Amino acid sequence: MSWKRLWLLPLVYLLLVEEALAQEYQTETGEVVFLSSASLNEFTGESGKLNGLLDLDTNTFDFYIDLNTLETGIGLRDRHMRENYLETKEYPFAEFSGKFEESGQLNLNQPVMVKAVGTFKIHGQEKDLVIPGKVTKISASEVLLEAEFQVKLSDYDIAIPQLMFYELSEIQQVTIKAILKNE
Amino acid sequence: MKRITKSRRLLTAVGTLLLFLIQGVSFAQLERKLATEDRKTDLLFHAPRHINLLTVEALDKNTLHFAIMHTFGPVNGGIRNLYGLDHGANIQFSFEYALEDKFSLGVSRSGRDKFYNLYGRYHLLEQTESGKMPFSLSLMAAAGVNTVDYGYLQENNPDFAQRSSFAAQVMLARKITDQFSLQLSPLLAYFNSPIPAYSIEGDQQLYLALGFSGKYKVTPMSSLTLQWIPNLNNGLRNNVGVGIDVEAGGHVFQMYFVTSPALNEQYLLAGGNGVPGEEFRLGFNVNRIFATGGN
User: Where are the beta strands (DSSP E) in chain A?
Assistant: First the structure.
């Protein structure tokens, strides 16, 4: 091939990539809710800023959230959560990425159970997790992802002071709901 | 001529390579982006109060800050007086409500001279993580009245205007490191009529001082605290305080030794101070924030 024709290569590549992108679903506005149920105090925190990528060709996924966007309804509690527990200045993101196994073909409005096998990372600590979830194709270009899992704070080096055990639960119940679009 | 073709070739080759790389990265993983580029710095201080002075720490809209503060007698009475606790305490209750994220109004009542104080805080500037705004700046103003029964003074019984006093301050603070925060507070207090019957040592109307408040975080939930308020226009002793702040279950507890029993700005400036050390008084504050719904 002559050097002059080399400029064609990126175009060819782009075409190929377009093909590959065809099964990529993304969002920047997924919902995350966590529930802390301690004996004296129960509260939830939420964010609508979950970023996610789901690739149905390679069966891989990548999700992350800026933990600074979590809100519990009480500003001071949010500030304590960021500064004393999650330490978001140093570790701003919670991340989960890996591969998933489907249990069937994706058809419109028929939920398919998936098993996500990946690495969950928060507070600078990593742990391999298997999270069951549900994927539903809700339109030609959208899939709905729903999942629920638990995060044990001590697994990620997040310490609860003795005084706080009645107010803050060691186990946080996390619920995720996101509509990912293929564009 | 030949040279130009050569560089063009190189450019194309590099361009192609870059394209592959960029595509490759976005294919594998999302780029990690913060939702907000420049966030406000969290918690310069543990609470809206720091030993006896107010801080730049703002309240969220529609939240109520309740503080109960105490100072006891001088510790030099020794164990017989349980280091000043037997003298009873000067106690101040205060309620401060945020009408806006930047503006709050408060009312306090101190036992010493049965003093009611109405005050407001306005937060003009707030420090941000990027350093684009390197410090926080707040303003405070107060008007108070002494409600002691001075009937025994007969015709000299001060009227409402004579019992009134005022305070104003600018609070300039910076979280210098994750552990260390410092606040500078130029303070002013004005007494319409500083008669000897009042529990103050000063006899002038206008008092100027410069407050220093320091916080050094030693654990995620606790800090060492420091307060120093040198007077600028009178011969009264300067106020010195040292203590610790402890966060626990939504409360902030503040325990300290301080040279004055005063708990509001007017009395802090005009009230006088003991000798640091032997005339320290034990003090403690409890701070609690209540969300009042709809936030």
Answer: 24-37, 42-55, 60-66, 93-102, 112-122, 125-139, 142-152, 171-181
